[in-house]
Prior knowledge:
The protein is of the alpha+beta class. It has helices spanning about 40-55, 60-85, 165-170, 175-190, 195-200, 200-215, 240-310, 310-330, 350-355, 380, 390-410, and strands at about 90-95, 95-105, 105-110, 115, 125-130, 135-145, 150-160, 225-235, 335, 370, 385-390. The strands form 4 sheets. A 3-stranded antiparallel β-sheet has the order 3-2-5, with no helix packed on it. The protein is rod-shaped, with a radius of gyration of 67 Å. The protein starts with about 40 loop residues before the first helix and ends with a helix.
Amino acid sequence: MAWNQPGNNGQDRDPWGSSNNQGGNSGGNKGGRDQGPPDLDDIFRKLSKKLGGLGGGKQIDSNQRGSGNSGKLYGIVAVAAVVIWAASGFYTIKEAERGVVTRFGKFSHLVEPGLNWKPTFIDQVRAVNVEAVRELAASGVMLTSDENVVRVEMNVQYRVTDPERYLYAVTSADDSLRQATDSALRGVIGRSTMDRILTEGRTVVRSDTQRELDETIRPYNMGITLLDVNFQAARPPEEVKAAFDDAIAARENREQYVREAEAYANEVQPRANGQAQRILEEARAYKERTVLEAQGEVARFAKLLPEYKAAPEITKERLYIETMERVLSNTRKVLVNERGNNLMVLPLDQLMRGGQTSGGRSDQQGASLMKLPAESDSSASRNSGSSYNPASIMDQRRANALRNDTQREGRE
């Protein structure tokens, strides 16, 4: 039922708590259908009265009870705050880290790994990793000593060894190291030529940069230690990159050819030295053999000279016989007296076989015949028509020489 509907036992109440049977009307509004919009001032006045009625006649007793409860509450809050403050001071330092403790902003001490406690709002702890290898990249376009521009990239590896110095010796140790690396690298590149940087001078640039960087950061004592400096890349500008690539390729080919030539020389030279040494030894041996043979010939002729002076004919005959003996002993020729009327069939196959076994040349031609000049010896003429071999002829000549020696001795 609506609040102003007729038949409400004569009590038409508006939603703001006013009624017609109570003294006066609120805001001049009458119950029933003649009511108008409520007055805002009246509404605020009634609301203030209700709020003020909450602290009625027993206001003093409420203040006494509230003071006792508030004291207990303050104690509980204080204890809870202390517990929370103490619990918030526990912290953990990892195995690879060290804790740097500052008390009211000033360095106090270092904390080892494990569970630790600090007074909150008094001490501050900063964990620093002292085992990890940190990397710093440096790169840029730099000017060389021959006024060329080259882009260089370098990587620096370092480790924190003193956490206190790392945090508080300089404003930022990492930024300081980056600036020192850039300065050292530019100084080394500025003293080197571009060809040397792009080719064989990379190792020198790396070592020089590491040395200068270490000398630069040492006075600052930043608590870091350099581990390695890696020279990663060096590239010429894009406009001349193709020409530099061709120059580098040509230099590499030259080095390759030089190494191949050295390898060939190392292979050929020992063999050539051995051949030269062998030729020298053969020449020395030939020299000694020739000298000794000449000396032997001189000694032999020196012994033959008195005999030749004593009997020239006999000596010449003996020399002739010995020479023919030596020459005809290795020949395959058959000697036949030219005075013979009959030519007996010679055993050519046996003569050829005998010549092969004696060391002569084994050609397949038939044995040649040689006519023997007429001998002054009567026995040779009587044996005309018979075949002679070199051995028999030498025997006859030797016999004639012995007979002549005997006759000469008898005459003497």
